[in-house]
Amino acid sequence: MLHRARMAEQEVLLQPFGSIMELILAADTGKIHQAVVPLENSLEGPVALTLDMLAHEVDLKMAAEIIISVRHHLLARKGIDLRNIEKVISHPQALGQCRAFLQEHLPQAELITASSTAEAAKVVAGSNDKWAAIGNAAAAAVYQLEILASDIQDNRANATRFCVLGKEDCSHPTGDDKTSIVFSPRRNRPGILYEQLREFAIRGIDLTRIESRPAKSVLGEYLFFIDAAGHKTAPDTAAAIEAVAASSSFFKILGSYARWKEE
Amino acid sequence: MLHRARMAEQEVLLQPFGSIMELILAADTGKIHQAVVPLENSLEGPVALTLDMLAHEVDLKMAAEIIISVRHHLLARKGIDLRNIEKVISHPQALGQCRAFLQEHLPQAELITASSTAEAAKVVAGSNDKWAAIGNAAAAAVYQLEILASDIQDNRANATRFCVLGKEDCSHPTGDDKTSIVFSPRRNRPGILYEQLREFAIRGIDLTRIESRPAKSVLGEYLFFIDAAGHKTAPDTAAAIEAVAASSSFFKILGSYARWKEE
Description:
2 copies of one chain form a homodimer.
Chain A: E1 3-7, E2 10-14, H1 20-28, E3 34-41, E4 45-46, H2 48-57, E5 61-69, E6 73-76, E7 87-90, H3 92-97, H4 99-105, E8 110-113, H5 117-125, E9 131-135, H6 137-142, E10 146-149, E11 159-166, E12 177-185, H7 192-201, E13 207-214, E14 222-229, H8 235-246, E15 248-258
Parallel strand pairs in A: 7-8, 7-9
Antiparallel strand pairs in A: 1-2, 3-4, 3-11, 5-11, 6-9, 6-10, 12-14, 12-15, 13-14
Helix pairs in contact in A: 7-8
């Protein structure tokens, strides 16, 4: 199913994929121009699959970052009363993130898991029973469901950071950029990571994120994902990155992109 | 179900738990003396639940680390031939880790998921069909199954690091120790993590692991888990740790313990 949408000045076609892996591979093989994939969540941490594929399996560049607050709503067909709901269906993470609301307002309802919140909304829209789904406002609109209660998630600080991936490196400096790299320090050198971070510190470059992932060789060897302030073409950032690359056994620039601004 | 085992000079009772969370809480509330929980795997990375509970929810000390190579075997009831197997049942990760073997030797077999490899062995032991389980040698012994093929995992470098957790801090220096800490650097200070790592580097203290987890407050704030060489009572390690604690808004020593030695 393709949806149309307007991005900046362009009309684009939106195509959903069943899994993050399929989506990233579709971008890598050129079946789609760009992929929007999750990188990290403020509660659950990194999306390991995305990081591992970016490091090991594909050759894609980050063109943008997008931060979206996770907002869960209780959705039902029109005319259904909150007090009569018998079953609540959603993705297990969404059910978990709305535990306090469900315990207070729907203690009698049975909880049913679905493969995604969108799938849950679809099931509820197609059923004749007193079911509700937990999902977002877009799902409510697509499946013509009513929002019985909004923002029912337990923790308001639930946000997910996505990146836009594409084959081409289309980045240009905007004045407030970040650069993402992944590298594996040369082995058997105590303090090597500290020396690599030093390249940023001595140039006053802020690191907004350091994430480690197993190198998948032996236990105790890691890849590091670093997000540094500045565009990769800025002299200071470029010099720091070059020094890190020189002291790494594996190194990749994942891309430079504009820092996300809250709207 | 309790099992007896001998550890060092002592006889101990072993009690299985259904989930990591229950196990950690049982140790924290004193229902059991010690818990053995997974910390990280060489392919899958950190066990987020363990790290998050150690940081936020419980007050437990690491008393030891244990590294176990993951070895998967194909298990069936006696008399079943490899070529006749119709279904293979195991935990999804074990099925995934033996994909090459299954494709080569059992391309016709249906793959069925179980909640654990032990559960899979139990199901196979209780069935009269031509089923096989993927599990370890202990499961084969407990459920009296035959090992039809051993070490069928794709990647030989698959190892999991566990820690032993208890209420009491029973650590004493052994001459080759590690100390695990978790901390959150004070906010709004570019380069603060670099300065904290510097405390170890200037003292020549090797860091064997740096792992970040979301602070669960807002996106972009992190806790760092660091494993440093040396016992927390060694002057250099103690001084570095003290300096890190002083520049952190959150700080916890998770414990000092002997470095794991391959047998």
